[in-house]
């Protein structure tokens, strides 16, 4: 855990206002088809951990399967609700505020597929929190159900910096211009990467500044596989990109697919 006592979920309510803007310039939609194929292959019901603004949730729900999106941030869930409403998917999507370490579902409502896109498990900063989450996911899955984990591998490689301009651009519609000024800190003994974010939003002569920090933890794929096996999962396969490429330590993406035994 960082020395300031912050948890991995801290900062996400503030981040919600800029999440879609930043992700459109980074990950975009390059992972969406992968999650859609998983849903086609495994069916529903589906649970997304850390659904955020619905970036993955809504395209997945277009499959017609029942999908539950869980997030701890009220601000993120408000964005997801708006996205679901615009897509007219309210009949097959349910949004739940909750903690991934203790999933609020009974054994009568188990899932065929649980997905953890874009490094959401890396917001768990301690081993005990990761173990609690993996046990909770195992118990929420039907026998034979699949758990798909997406890890961001390059976090330890980010160079430490102070107040670097990382991104600039306009919100959709062009009415506001946003600048992201970022500082990066590495706590290598704990495998943590901390991003101190300063978003500056300008509308004409108005200027608003939002500051917060986001913290992520990196485990290697063998470490993650070991933790999955220790709580009863069976490794199904590893992938190194979103189109089926083989996994290797230098792969651009680390995807782990594990199954709850029958």
From TrEMBL:
Residues 46-145 form the Methyltransferase domain. CDD domains: AdoMet_MTases (cd02440). It holds the Pfam family Methyltransf_25. Transmembrane segments: none annotated. Signal peptide: none annotated. InterPro entries: Methyltransf_25, SAM-dependent_MTases_sf. This is Methyltransferase domain-containing protein.
